[in-house]
Write a structure and sequence with these properties.
Blueprint lengths: L2 H28 L4 H6 L3 H30 L3 H12 L2 H14 L6 E2 L6 H7 E4 L2 E4 L4 E2 H21 L1
Antiparallel strand pairs: 1-4, 2-3
Helix pairs in contact: 1-3, 1-4, 1-5, 1-7, 4-7
């Protein structure tokens, strides 16, 4: 098999691993309650737990995951970079949606403003009118997210091939 396909496979495995971490938390501890819902209901303890989880998850995603991959499994920086591109295009969350459906038999919401951080979500969320910057979390449909995931994997493959 071509070396770039092996590297792209590593990108997909990283997406699967990070999605498992996210899924285990949201359905194991939180029962998928958002920070906003926790604050509205006065559940400050849960709101703090959500913030702590997000901080730990980002530290894991941005610092620990690349270090473990590079030092323990000899994964190259370009594969790590390709993973982050695919992740930005919804890769990990696509696996999260699959886990959610398989293990909980709950369908994924058709629209979601939690997808605002994807490229399409940012294009819809950020507006500049009359020289003023406006940001409002935009909805991105699940179908659009699947397309974004495919595009992200194509960009990841291109990055791997070019290196």
């Amino acid at each position: 098999m071509a070396e770039w396909l092996n590297q792209l496979e590593t990108v997909i495995y990283l997406g699967i691993i990070t999605a498992l971490y996210d899924f285990a938390y949201w359905f194991g501890i939180n029962r998928e309650i958002s920070y906003e819902t926790a604050k509205e209901t006065g559940n400050d303890k849960l709101a703090r737990r959500i913030i702590i989880f997000r901080i730990c998850k980002e530290i894991t995603d941005l610092i620990i995951l690349p270090l473990v991959c590079i030092l323990s499994f000899n994964v190259s920086w370009n594969v790590i970079g390709a993973y982050y591109i695919a992740k930005w295009f919804h890769l990990s969350d696509s696996f999260y949606n699959i886990y959610r459906f398989i293990w909980t038999n709950q369908p994924v919401a058709e629209n979601g403003n939690w997808r605002w951080w994807t490229p399409l979500g940012l294009l819809r969320s950020i507006r500049i009118t009359r020289g003023k910057f406006h940001f409002e979390k935009a909805n991105v449909t699940i179908k659009e997210c699947w397309y974004q995931t495919a595009i992200g994997l194509i960009f990841a493959a291109i990055l791997i091939i070019l290196n």
